[in-house]
Structures are given as structure tokens and as C-alpha cells.
């Protein structure tokens, strides 16, 4: 056990705890017993008691809690009681960690999307290149079908650049387009500007 000094309140709480699960005491019972000794735990006594239990555990006291028929806090009387408590706590922490893992994925996806948006900012040269690809006949199509028009103009941009660079595989053309911020998404935004 870790040897640390206890506060008077911690000593009092320890003295109220029974040994073994059969002697478990509920939070309400412990708070009532503290009040009968003239000790008030503040505006949220249950939370403060939980904090005290946490502090005592950190100081090496084998305080367990159960939430079955014998619900409450107690000092472990046997290694098995302590082990059972540890296993329940680990399972509870694993369950609590599941939504955190999902939220972490959501966060990464969100950040990646923001980074991608920043990377798709059209340069002036990119805008001029796109303007050069739009003919007078395209405006009617753009107004009626802006999303399809964006795909069509992006495809046209890839093909024109492949031809200019004599890049029949398309890697150099796609690299150039990306360097100018030209992606399907940025072309879609560009078309909104053209329509606006």
C-alpha cells in the first residue's frame, strides 16, 4: 500500500467503510453518517464522496464499489473482491472508450475534409485555365445541370492538359491540375461563381 498522509475527512470516510462486499454502504448511507458527525460535503455530496473515494484509491486503499443487490462502497476483504472490482471497472472503461474511438474517427475525417478543402483553393492561373475551357454553348448546360457541367468541365480540363503535356497516362496532367487547385469539388465551386 502507498503510504500517504490522509486528511481528517479521508480518515473519517475510511472509518465508515465496512470490510467485504456484504458490508457495502450506499453513498446515501455514508453521506448520512458523515452528516450525523457534523460533516457536510457541499452542494453535490455524492460527487464529492466519489472524489474522496478516488483520492483514497490513489493513496492505495482497496476501496471497491458494487452495483448489484449489495450496492455500495466497501473495503476489499479478499484479493478476489478487489480483482472482481478491477475487472468491472476495466469493462466499464472499455465501454466508455467505444464512443471516444468513434468520435476520434469522426474528428480525423472532419480534419481531413477541411484540409482537402484548403488544398482545393483555385489559383488565379487555375481559374483562367477553367475559363478558357468554357464555351458560349456551355452556359445553357451549366445553368440547367451545374453538377454535371462541373464533371464535364473537370474531365475536359484533364483531357486538355493531358494533350498539352503529351501525357497519355494522365499523371502529370492530374499533378498540374492539383497544383492549381483544380479538383471536381473546386470546379463545382467555380461554376457557382460563374453562375453568380
Q: Could you please describe the fold and organization of this structure?
A:
This protein has about 200 residues and is mainly α. The chain has 2 domains: about 10-75, Arc Repressor Mutant, subunit A; about 120-195, no CATH class. Helices cover about 65% and strands about 5% of the residues. The chain is rod-shaped and about 90 Å long. The protein starts with 7 loop residues before the first helix and ends with a helix. The mean pLDDT is about 90.
Parts with pLDDT < 50 across at least 5 consecutive residues: none
**Structural domains: how many:** 2
> What overall form do the CA principal axes indicate?
rod-shaped
Rg computed from alpha carbons, rounded to a whole number of angstroms: 33 Å
Terminal Cα span = 73 Å
**Secondary structure: helix percent:** 55-70%
- Largest sheet properties: 2 strands, antiparallel
Number of strands: 2
Q: Strand order within the widest sheet? A: 1-2
Q: What are the secondary-structure elements, in order, as H or E? A: HHHEEHHHHHH
How much beta, percentage-wise? Answer: under 5%
Number of helices: 9
Computed structural class? mainly alpha
- Whole-number mean pLDDT: 88
Task: Provide the fold topology.
Layout: H1 8-16, H2 27-36, H3 45-58, E1 63-66, E2 72-75, H4 79-119, H5 124-133, H6 138-144, H7 146-165, H8 171-179, H9 184-195
Antiparallel strand pairs: 1-2
Amino acid at each position: 500500500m502507498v503510504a500517504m498522509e490522509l486528511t481528517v475527512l479521508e480518515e473519517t470516510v475510511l472509518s465508515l467503510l465496512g470490510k467485504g462486499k456484504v458490508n457495502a454502504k450506499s453513498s446515501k448511507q455514508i453521506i448520512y453518517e458523515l452528516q450525523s458527525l457534523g460533516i457536510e460535503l457541499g452542494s453535490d455530496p455524492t460527487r464529492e464522496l466519489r472524489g474522496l473515494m478516488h483520492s483514497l484509491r490513489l493513496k492505495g486503499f482497496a476501496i471497491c464499489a458494487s452495483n448489484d443487490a449489495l450496492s455500495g462502497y466497501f473495503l476489499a476483504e479478499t484479493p478476489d473482491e478487489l480483482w472482481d472490482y478491477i475487472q468491472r471497472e476495466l469493462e466499464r472503461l472499455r465501454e466508455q472508450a467505444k464512443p471516444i474511438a468513434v468520435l476520434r474517427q469522426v474528428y480525423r475525417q472532419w480534419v481531413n475534409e477541411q484540409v482537402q478543402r484548403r488544398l482545393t483553393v483555385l489559383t488565379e492561373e487555375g481559374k483562367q485555365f477553367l475559363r478558357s475551357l468554357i464555351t458560349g454553348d456551355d452556359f445553357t448546360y451549366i445553368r440547367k445541370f451545374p453538377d454535371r457541367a462541373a464533371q464535364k468541365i473537370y474531365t475536359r480540363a484533364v483531357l486538355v492538359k493531358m494533350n498539352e503535356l503529351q501525357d497519355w497516362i494522365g499523371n502529370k496532367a492530374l499533378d498540374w491540375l492539383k497544383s492549381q487547385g483544380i479538383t471536381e469539388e473546386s470546379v463545382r465551386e467555380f461554376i457557382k461563381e460563374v453562375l453568380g
